[in-house]
Amino acid sequence: MELMIIHHLNDSKFLIRLPKDNFKKERKQMTSGDEIVSINLNRNRKQNFKDKELKEKASQLQRIDFRITEIELIDKNGNPYTEILISNLEKEKFTIEDLRELYRRRWKIETNFDRLKNIIMLENFTGHRKIILEQDFYANIYIFNFLIAMKHDTNNKIEEKHKNKTTNTNTKQISTYCSEKLKWKYPTSSHPTPRNKKKQCRE
Hints:
By secondary structure, this protein is of the alpha+beta class. The chain has helices at 2-9, 24-28, 43-46, 52-61, 96-118, 130-161, 171-182, 198-202, and strands at residues 15-17, 34-40, 63-74, 80-87. It contains eight helices and four strands, in the order αβαβααββαααα.
């Protein structure tokens, strides 16, 4: 909710997959699968806001209108299922098919976030200080870009050798190969920040 209000106040567009248990009351009042819904910004919805200024602005708004859309999709096994999307995209400019296509495109973004977290171990840091956190972050992004470049290069070479064959090499296998050949190591566990280090981490 906090993120959606930030987008609304900044007049920026968003499209978010909505968990099925969110806004149940408002969704029950819908008479179709694509409607503008008025959402009450009650105390329960604002209690977890981290930004006090944003919380105050939300209190002033009291209610906010968002678009809730149900789209039908097909999973990898060919079975139909329904996803619920929430956005501030105008119905006059964006059709349901447009929203379905936007949702489809976000999948590759989520896949790369998963790779960053579970292959590159982006969230595992080697220290507490700001300079170390930034160093680890940028080094991991560099490694990730290197791996993706190798992945595309490998795919192209395999496809050139085996004509008319589409290839998608395994990023984890490429990561393991590079780790062995180049002798780099990913952090194997997170480096927790003790309470007395929180101030140092924010410096």
